[in-house]
Design goal:
Rossmann fold; 11 helices; 8 strands; 39% helix; 17% strand; binds iron/sulfur cluster
């Protein structure tokens, strides 16, 4: 175990049970690095996880408080928890694309609407890989999957004209970024900004699935090929190429620009109490 694993993660969860070569570890490591650079301690964070590869592989790895919210419910649980824990404690969620942009999307939108403090790291393996590799809501068009043997024919939620980040921005999210897992320093930087926002933050990060996605889309489980393929189809915003699928960088930063959900509710309750105490004294 390295220094960061010893400081933040549970020894029995290292190494993770992810398939050999899976890129999920890069997402996880970037988040832990960001927390370390921000000098957070284990007890400063509550970590929630979702269903699927992203949730399963990060479940209960954090040495501090953890919770699991399967099948899209983790955002609603986090909103409730936000009211129960001290405001200075951060909520971090590691979830997958199917959980966030599929079954949990309604709850995700309401977490954004209310600007509840949470940092959602969407670890995107481009489909439902834990169930065999079916297409999902971010699977690029034309890609062969277990459920699209002739190529994914539907549009997806990363295309510029229907980008899920635009929907989240419209819903009220105050920090949004997109990356691929090999972005390194840039990904850590976005995650640090996301965690520092006292509101709803989401960082969408595409990572290579060496098992089902690579086998179906590229015809091989060769890890080098799928890492190159993901990296080749990403480019920083403003430096797009003809084959760019993922425009990376900070998409929207309105950090700390409007009231956070639990703070606003506490203020509202205090105001109601003041009003009734005032009326009661007359
Ligand atoms: S199925 Fe794919 S995403 Fe899931 S753990 Fe294996 S390599 Fe990673």
């Amino acid at each position: 175990m390295d220094r960061l694993s010893k400081k933040y993660l549970r020894a029995r969860k290292i190494p993770s049970t992810a398939c050999s070569g899976c890129g999920l570890g890069q997402c996880h490591k970037a988040l832990v690095l960001a927390l370390d650079e921000l000098e957070y301690e284990v007890n400063d964070v509550v970590w929630g996880t979702s269903i699927g590869c992203a949730g399963r592989q990060t479940f209960a790895t954090w040495q501090g408080d953890n919770f699991a919210g399967t099948h899209g419910r983790v955002y609603a649980i986090a909103r409730g928890l936000r009211l129960a824990i001290p405001p200075k404690m951060k909520i971090i969620l590691t979830v997958g694309d199917g959980d966030a942009f599929g079954i949990g999307f309604n709850h995700l939108l309401h977490a954004a609407r209310s600007n509840a403090q949470m940092t959602v790291l969407v670890c995107d393996n481009l489909g439902y890989q834990s169930t065999g590799g079916q297409f999902g809501w971010t699977t690029p068009q034309g890609i062969v999957t277990d459920s699209s043997p002739y190529g994914m024919s539907e549009p997806n939620w990363v295309q510029p004209e229907m980008d899920v980040l635009a929907m989240l921005k419209a819903a009220g999210a105050t920090f949004l970024a997109r990356h691929v897992s090999m972005d390194g320093v840039a990904l850590v930087k976005s995650l640090k900004k996301a965690v520092q926002n006292n509101g709803f933050s989401l960082v969408h990060t595409v990572f290579p699935c060496t098992t089902n996605f690579a086998k179906n889309a590229l015809g091989s489980r060769n890890a080098v090929n799928i890492f190159r393929w993901v990296k080749d189809h990403a480019a920083p915003m403003g430096e797009e190429k003809h084959n760019t699928l993922w425009r990376t960088g900070i998409y929207h930063d309105a950090s700390n620009s409007r009231p956070e959900f639990s703070a606003a509710l506490r203020d509202s309750v205090a105001e109601i109490q003041r009003r009734y105490q005032h009326e009661g004294s007359h």
